[in-house]
Amino acid sequence: MTDQRIYNFNAGPAALPLSVLEEIQASFLNFKNSGMSITEISHRSSYFDEVINDAVERVKRLLKLDDRFHVLFVQGGASLQFAMIPMNLLAPDDAADYINTGTWSTKAIAEAQKMGKSVHVVASSEDKNFSYIPQNIAFNPSSKFVHLTSNNTIKGTQFYEFPDTKGIPIVADMSSDIFSRPLPMEKFGLIYAGAQKNLGPSGTCMVIIRKDLVDSGNENLPTMLKYSTYSTKNSMYNTPPCFGIYTIDLVLKWIEEEMGGIEKMEEHNIKKADVLYDAIDASSFYTTTAEKYSRSLMNVTFRLPSEDLERDFVERANQHGLGGLKGHRSVGGCRASIYNAASMESMYALVEFMESFEKENK
Amino acid sequence: MTDQRIYNFNAGPAALPLSVLEEIQASFLNFKNSGMSITEISHRSSYFDEVINDAVERVKRLLKLDDRFHVLFVQGGASLQFAMIPMNLLAPDDAADYINTGTWSTKAIAEAQKMGKSVHVVASSEDKNFSYIPQNIAFNPSSKFVHLTSNNTIKGTQFYEFPDTKGIPIVADMSSDIFSRPLPMEKFGLIYAGAQKNLGPSGTCMVIIRKDLVDSGNENLPTMLKYSTYSTKNSMYNTPPCFGIYTIDLVLKWIEEEMGGIEKMEEHNIKKADVLYDAIDASSFYTTTAEKYSRSLMNVTFRLPSEDLERDFVERANQHGLGGLKGHRSVGGCRASIYNAASMESMYALVEFMESFEKENK
Hints:
The structure is a homodimer.
Chain A: E1 7-8, H1 18-26, H2 46-62, E2 69-74, H3 77-89, E3 95-100, H4 103-114, E4 118-124, E5 146-149, E6 151-152, E7 157-158, E8 170-173, E9 188-194, E10 205-210, H5 227-231, H6 242-258, H7 262-281, E11 287-288, E12 299-303, H8 307-319, E13 322-323, E14 334-337, H9 344-361
């Protein structure tokens, strides 16, 4: 903690690197000696061109993207992507495979069906309350893409390996684990991520799309819902969410220059999650809700012996400067969201608190 | 100017009140003693509930809205509204009247037509290069709404009075003059405004909609494109653009508490524009592009005797700490955008510079 800052375990919007926040604060009245705030500069200026181009280049370096991919910034969150993906990628007779691993996948499926698209739910972990990631899935060879949610914030599960789809491009909602680890990009056709967990403030969604998919489906869409509107104008057909893109650029810079790149970021994230899962596994008071081989490195979901104890735990933790530990309102329990920006220090602080709470309440 | 800040005449993103920027900066690492940045707090927290509810209440007070209206925050800018409005308000057999006063109206019309809607362009000022606001328009009594752009940033024109539509609700793009003056709300069915001119940073669009219009058209729309998704969830069906809404709330507070309300804001804006137009009218070197009775109080568009002089003017003004005076790339010339946050001091500074530039170059 610095001054009065807490350890922030919010699921999203979530903790951002302190050095990023400090840089935003320091230059907030005068961005790069422009005499203007970043919130006041024109998106048609060289100041902003540098910001957005730097962000795109950092994404390409971090994920080792080649020229087959566009990096776009779209508004409306992942929820708008649930509609844009089938609208843009599927022609009227096309079909897609979807893997259902929880709340967000379920919404993505429902939205594609609402668009009148042919959707095959080829695997689901609903039979065990979404506590695991399905394996050995048979895909439909004629499907245009396979949609999955790489990390499930509410149920606390995560794909460690991405399925072998026999060449069908994977379309992945990575809102909660983008840039937390290197990715086998050859498997992906489209990756999307609402910024407010691992990337920046809410209000900007990053879309990484293989160029051949941009115009693969319906052409007659509203201008702001066509990927080509963004890909042909460097995401600036209309005014983009400048402050969000600026913050994302700083977060990407932090990953590259302070954390040492995405492989180091992954190592750090594994170590952080290990500290927490080891403590939970060593206890009979705390239990995780996800099956062991599917546990998320980003959202550690766990239960206490009773709902009363859980309420007390969250409240007492708050008093100790550990915020955001309440589970999603749809499932209850507790959840520690430990995205890229969560520090190792915060893991130790949480584990220490958990141990003392257990001693007092066992 | 404070420290190294310039006089910012950008068309959008544009100048924000300095006191608002200072408040954001001061609390950026610790919002309301939460121990988190405003960019890190959950949209499901009481902290953010207070922000969004305060913003909505301030809108209602400033515009004297009664309970017939919702105040919503949507992403995607005014450009997405160009599609959402006909999608939501027009059933398959419905038609709408559109008034064409320039670039943005033209785009709104094109998008409604793209949605397959029946659009009547009942008036246009295209015959004189959009230099005036059409008067004495005959509307189609069966049209569901009349769409207009209240202020035209590129051509520098503005509706002073809103037309008598014989009860047909007006749908207005007020991106560039919302909260610059009181409004006869009984005439309006829907008002929308991208925030980045008079309200806050880019990435948030305010939509004020009469409740009976929310579900008046097509029901089978993508979730994120239905107004009812926003109106039933206080704009928080998914994660809203929190930083944008927070800044908007501070700007509205500034209008109410520092500027003295919307009537005072209008007086201030008239005085500011008068200073600039009086100087231009007194000169034969500068000429406005808009007809006198249609001149915008927000975007003062003017020409110099030659394009070379215009280039020189913009460059020299920049060197003197007067930024953003270049006209829109589609029309050339010069433009001073003097939204709510532009100070009287900046008007005097601009006029002084204009006079000295004229003397040197006449």
